[in-house]
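Researcher: Quick test of sequence recovery. Tokens follow.
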């Protein structure tokens, strides 16, 4: 018999005996097992949200000079992943929220995403909360598209348990979604465990009520233990629960080595060479597990803008001895710069300047300048050609940037790269675009006194210039309908307090933060529940004047049916909705927004006095700039 096979079996036996000796709770602190030292590389993305086309005119600096280029796009991301082709030391991972977000999902229900993901050929894909936006049946449809390709990426989630007999489990619980995958990389077996955020998926998406979502930490440890019992010492968690939750989870688990995450859209690493300072942490972020061993955490932003590459070295005990890497922006190879210098007008640079820029960028690890992959472009063309005409239709002009913010004062700037939005996340007014959306809903409802919209339901900032049909669908990509509820002033305040409590109870619930039209307030997030909203005022729809809301008076509220049904923590809404106390307008919320834009030759931010946030104090007690 081959001596290498004998040695391999002997090592496996030794590992199994060691595990038996320490029982289920033993971790890498058990040093009796011996493993061949190994180095693996993980290439990963997350939260691409059906962003298949590149984003034009993304702005960064090169040598202090403002520069614009395309960023992302699935065909360019495919080219970034092609560099790993043929290597046996690489894992290619997607940390969830692959679908929903653009017209590609609206028109193709995930088929376009699935074909592009199969072209990249991910080794595993985590199930994010938005994978459940169209329910278990919608997720099944997407997974069927994935399974139809030659690659068949592994869909993973150890804490999702669909009921047998339902869409995701026609015969057995793990028919469609597996808890883990074992893959040999660089000569060692690596266990990849999927984790889906529990509360957010149940509250903010539409899984079947019979689909069980287990506690994330409990499911992760149980699955890690199962892998250890099979002699697997190298463990990767592929999570969709957010950067803060990943860091917290690391310290609660034994035997975890690496966490590749998504959900919080976190940009990690040093991008100061590109003039970008709004990052949330280092890449990789180093934590410690319950054993005291090193855990390497990575995430790679959003919307196919960046790829993460982490290289991990394991010692002879199967523990992480070193990890390093970089999340890198993936941009095109054509550039624009101001002409003349300092001008607000950007023009395509000369060939000589382009060559110089490419040379400069090649020495900056935080960016990769790449052409698109031709084979992947052919796949994109198959879909883009069908919607190009509709996507290109201009419906209005935007006179000033409409910045995207979820929570005023949040650490990350969701509008990074949009000129004029550099400090948007630090201002009390919060989200310009969420405010405009709320005004559109109020205009679309002939009965309503006020409109309420959750910040997380608004998905993109809008740049100055033309706004197209597709831009509007990118802002509001979901299939929600507007409904109207008749509520007292007291109930309206309860709705707002419910949403804030849900948002503040966890770092991953930021999408619950409320915005409104015809309603404004002072907000102190450092206070306890029911004391955060004060000086709540309602606008008279006829005169435009504001007065304090009357607790006992009745008002008609228009909102989307998602939060109306109690999702995202909107409990008071949900109680009324579930009792049937609402009117369905049958107005598609995205179409209502499009109609609002079409009715106006130009659109800008609303008057500051009409913003829902008059003043804001953050959770830590900081008073924000009242602009």
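Model:
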């Amino acid at each position: 018999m081959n001596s290498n096979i004998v040695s391999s079996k002997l090592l496996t036996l030794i590992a199994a005996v060691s595990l038996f000796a320490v029982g289920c709770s033993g971790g890498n602190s058990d040093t009796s097992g011996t493993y061949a030292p190994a180095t693996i590389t993980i290439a990963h993305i997350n939260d691409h949200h059906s962003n298949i086309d590149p984003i034009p005119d993304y702005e960064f600096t090169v040598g202090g000079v403002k520069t614009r280029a395309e960023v992302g796009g699935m065909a360019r991301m495919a080219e970034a992943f092609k560099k790993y082709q043929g290597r046996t030391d690489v894992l290619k991972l997607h940390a969830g929220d692959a679908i929903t977000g653009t017209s590609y999902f609206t028109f193709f229900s995930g088929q376009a995403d699935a074909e592009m993901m199969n072209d990249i050929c991910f080794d595993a894909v985590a199930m994010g909360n938005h994978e459940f936006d169209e329910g278990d049946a919608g997720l099944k449809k997407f997974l069927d598209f994935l399974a139809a390709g030659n690659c068949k990426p592994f869909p993973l989630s150890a804490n999702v348990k669909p009921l047998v007999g339902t869409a995701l489990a026609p015969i057995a619980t793990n028919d469609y979604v597996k808890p883990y995958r074992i893959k040999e990389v660089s000569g060692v077996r690596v266990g990849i465990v999927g984790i889906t955020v529990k509360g957010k998926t149940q509250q903010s998406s539409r899984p079947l009520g019979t689909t069980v979502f287990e506690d994330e930490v409990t499911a992760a440890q149980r699955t890690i233990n199962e892998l250890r019992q099979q002699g697997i010492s190298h463990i990767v968690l592929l999570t969709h629960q957010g950067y803060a939750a990943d860091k917290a989870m690391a310290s609660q688990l034994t035997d975890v080595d690496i966490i590749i995450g998504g959900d919080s859209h976190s940009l990690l690493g040093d991008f100061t060479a590109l003039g970008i300072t709004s990052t949330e942490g280092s890449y990789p972020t180093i934590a410690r597990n319950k054993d005291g061993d090193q855990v390497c955490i990575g995430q790679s932003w959003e919307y196919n803008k960046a790829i993460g590459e982490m290289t991990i070295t394991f010692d002879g005990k199967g523990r992480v001895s070193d990890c390093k890497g970089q999340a890198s922006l993936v941009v095109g190879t054509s550039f624009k710069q101001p002409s003349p210098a300092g001008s607000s007008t950007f023009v395509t640079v000369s060939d000589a300047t382009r060559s110089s820029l490419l040379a400069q960028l090649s020495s900056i690890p935080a960016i990769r300048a790449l052409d698109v992959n031709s084979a992947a472009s052919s796949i994109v063309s198959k879909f883009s050609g069908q919607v190009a005409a509709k996507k290109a239709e201009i419906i209005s002009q935007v006179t000033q940037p409409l910045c995207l913010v979820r929570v005023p004062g949040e650490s990350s700037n969701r509008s990074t790269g949009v000129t004029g939005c550099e400090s948007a996340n630090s201002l009390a007014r919060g989200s310009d675009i969420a405010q405009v959306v709320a005004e559109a809903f109020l205009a679309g409802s002939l009965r309503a006194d006020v409109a309420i919209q959750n910040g997380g339901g608004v998905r993109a900032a809008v740049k100055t210039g033309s706004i197209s049909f597709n831009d509007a669908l990118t802002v509001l990509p979901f299939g929600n309908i507007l409904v109207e509820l008749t509520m007292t002033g007291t109930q309206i305040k309860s709705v707002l307090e419910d949403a804030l409590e849900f948002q503040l109870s966890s770092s991953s619930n930021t999408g619950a933060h409320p915005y409104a039209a015809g309603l404004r307030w002072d907000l102190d997030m450092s206070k306890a529940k029911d004391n955060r909203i004060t000086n709540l005022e309602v606008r008279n729809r006829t005169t435009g004047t504001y007065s304090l809301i009357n607790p006992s008076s009745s008002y008609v509220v228009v909102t989307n049916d998602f939060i109306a049904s109690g999702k995202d923590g909107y409990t008071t809404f949900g109680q009324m909705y579930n009792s049937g106390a609402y009117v369905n307008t049958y107005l598609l919320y995205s179409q209502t927004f499009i109609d609002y834009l079409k009715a106006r030759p130009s659109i800008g931010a609303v008057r500051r006095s009409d913003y829902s946030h008059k003043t804001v104090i953050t959770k830590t007690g900081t008073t924000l700039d009242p602009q």
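The chain has two domains: 35-55+74-327, 393-617.
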